[in-house]
Amino acid sequence: MQDFEGKVAVVTGAASGIGLGLATRFAQEGMKVVLADVEEGAIESAVTALRRQEHDVLGVLTDVSSADSVAALARRTLETYGGVHVLCNNAGVAGAGGSGGPVWQKTAKDWQWAMGVNFYGVVNGISAFLPAMVESGEEGHVVNTASMTGVVSNMFGIYGVTKHAVVALSEYLYYSLAEQGAKIGASVLCPSFVRTNLGAADRNRPEALKNEGAPAPPPPTWYNDPAVVAARAKSIDTDASAQIVLDAIREKRFWIFTDREMDDAIRARADGILAWRNPGATLT
User: Which of 159, 172, 174, 175 is catalytic?
Assistant: First the structure.
């Protein structure tokens, strides 16, 4: 896609962070934007702010872990705007239970919450929107938000598992669209450190999926790895990350990274696989 003016974008997890950055940047390009999020007050504030800037936007309260909720989002979008051209499956959660501590100590609720939002949120978005996007015959693009943790050695617990899954799903989506001859591109966004409130995602964890009386997990050891410390020091804001995504859509790039700080970590993992080397507890 080269021309965004008058087209329609849908962004999940759009009330804050990378999602709000994407919604804002798309609106600035003249797109009609549907902002979806599970946090009602925040989505209302985001929509109000964008409308004050005279952007054509719609807010829809959505739980991406629910196929029915995402299907309702798709229906509302089509009823309001008649089509979709850019789909950003961006909603994601991290936080308590997601990264620190042995994997065997994680509960079924930890897995259900993280997989429900981070992975099935993408699955549900693809299932709800892609049929109409492909059938329209128009140009379009899908961006699935994974993480740098989806391409480096997975020392990131459940969060890393979900993001590796998103990367694999996105690759298969890319192949499938090409095989069908669809005019729709696909990308996977693997941000390193972007200044967001992702770490506070527990505020939106459903009561039914909370671990009653569970102690806080220990901080993840990877957080103080030298490569991670260096990447954190150079974190970018959400406006910058949104511009990177917009440029990638125009350039039809599948892989979207926000910096080159983790190149050595990616290379180390790839080299280790090719050398049949056991995983190492390092990112460098």
Answer: 159
